[in-house]
Design goal:
By secondary structure, this protein is α/β, with parallel strands linked by helices. 27% of the residues lie in helices and 27% in strands. Strand 8 and strand 9 form a beta hairpin.
Length: 250
């Protein structure tokens, strides 16, 4: 079974956002990067599937040249090989453009199963996984928190507004991974050393075909400092008045 995991390099969660001089992009100078949290779940599920059913795990990302760091982390955890689709303007791609590039590579690799994270922790769009499944014309199950797989298909559970849904599907398929699906493993020393010898293919990305263009960015307004309106039950009338007239949330 050929299993592909599509991952994304994202800024670390403690990054302080700054608007670039053009007002339409982020100033990324000084940014540190990491693998998106939900993509860690996808990598772990791919490795678990290989351990259960056999096969090969290939990790794919669209990003800059130094995104090999995140790919090597995936290899150290048990993936077999990786592909970096190099694009220095990767953060400027919209979800559709990214999904198209990934879909082309998935077809080229001859994948049977694709895992992605439910959402990337930078843009929070939750769009690429679903678009990828649509472009491939494969069964697509999103936000999966429980999964059982065979060589021909699987059963997945996902939480929805109406409760927990149970779905069955056939391969090939795209599965986006949510919290609760697994607990990502740490890379041991043996895995880290082995990752240095595993192949990482680097190819240039085609030009972006964006349908979405950012016109401007703005940081949210600073919050006002909190204040204490009183103590105990006697403070309730003042609290209600502040919520109604100042915060205007009641």
């Amino acid at each position: 079974m050929k299993i592909v995991v599509c991952v994304k390099r994202v800024p670390t969660t403690d990054v302080q956002a700054k608007i670039a001089a053009d007002g339409a992009a982020l100033d990324t100078s000084g940014f540190q990067y990491m693998l998106s949290f939900y993509d860690e779940l996808a990598v772990e599920q791919a490795i678990l599937t290989k351990e259960q059913l056999g096969g090969e795990v290939v990790v794919v990302t669209v990003g800059p040249g130094d995104a090999t760091k995140e790919l090597r982390e995936c290899l150290a955890k048990g993936a077999d090989s990786a592909v970096l689709i190099k694009d220095d303007a990767w953060m400027d791609r919209d979800a559709r453009s990214t999904a198209k590039v990934l879909a082309d590579k998935v077809r080229e690799l001859g994948a049977d199963l694709v895992f992605t994270g439910r959402v990337a922790t930078d843009r929070d769009n939750a769009a690429v996984g679903a678009m990828l499944g649509t472009l491939l014309d494969w069964a697509t199950v999103t936000d999966v928190s429980e999964l059982e797989l065979t060589e021909s298909g699987g059963t997945a559970k996902r939480e929805s507004e109406s409760g927990v849904e149970t779905l069955t599907f056939s391969l090939p398929a795209v599965v986006t991974c949510d919290k609760g699906l697994n607990e990502p493993r740490y890379a041991g020393l043996k895995g880290i050393m082995a990752a240095k010898k595993k192949p990482v293919e680097e190819v240039d990305a085609p030009a972006a075909e964006n349908h979405v263009q950012v016109q401007s960015l703005a940081l949210p307004a600073e919050r006002q400092e909190g204040r204490i309106v009183g103590e105990g039950a006697a403070a309730v009338p003042a609290l209600i008045e502040a919520l109604q007239n100042e915060a205007q949330v009641l």
